[in-house]
Design brief:
Layout (H helix, E strand, L loop, with lengths): L4 H4 L2 E5 L3 H13 L3 E5 L2 H10 L5 E5 L7 H8 L3 H4 L3 E5 L5 H9 L3 E4 L4 H13 L8
Parallel strand pairs: 1-2, 1-3, 3-4, 4-5
């Protein structure tokens, strides 16, 4: 029996508490041929990751209720089963030091809001083609 085409698409986990940004990001990710799994905040993203690690990448907002994106990334980098998932952080925060903190936590990409369709598309491409090694800590 052959799987439906939808199940063969690589999957991206997207977590953002802003419904407009979440819709925009999901639309762009879907238009690039990926299946999107959506979380409305960091706590929901962690709950999804507890039972599902089959993601080609993840895109998290920095500031979310309950658990911030950077804390989700820190958690992901403590367990081997999550380490192979590259993560892009998106944020509207204007503190330039956040990029450094994000990379130190284990993110592989950082994108400042507002971003263009082309910027997210290009970052998504580099996100999903990047190889994560066990040296990520």
């Amino acid at each position: 029996m052959q799987l439906p085409v939808e199940q063969l698409k690589p999957r991206i986990l997207v977590a953002d508490d802003d419904p407009v940004i979440r819709h925009l990001v999901c639309s762009i990710v879907k238009s690039e041929g990926y299946e999107v799994v959506v979380a409305e905040d960091g706590r929901e993203a962690l709950k999804i990751l507890q039972t599902d690690t089959d993601f080609k990448g993840a895109i998290f907002d920095m500031m979310m209720p309950h658990i911030e994106g950077i804390d989700v990334i820190r958690f992901m980098r403590t367990e081997k089963r999550f380490m192979r998932i590259p993560v892009m952080m998106i944020t509207s925060e204007q503190d330039f030091r956040l990029a450094g903190k994000t990379f130190a936590a284990g993110a592989t990409h950082f994108l400042q809001k507002p971003f263009t369709h082309a910027q997210l598309k290009n970052m998504l491409h580099t996100l999903v083609t990047q190889r994560i090694t066990d040296s990520v800590s």
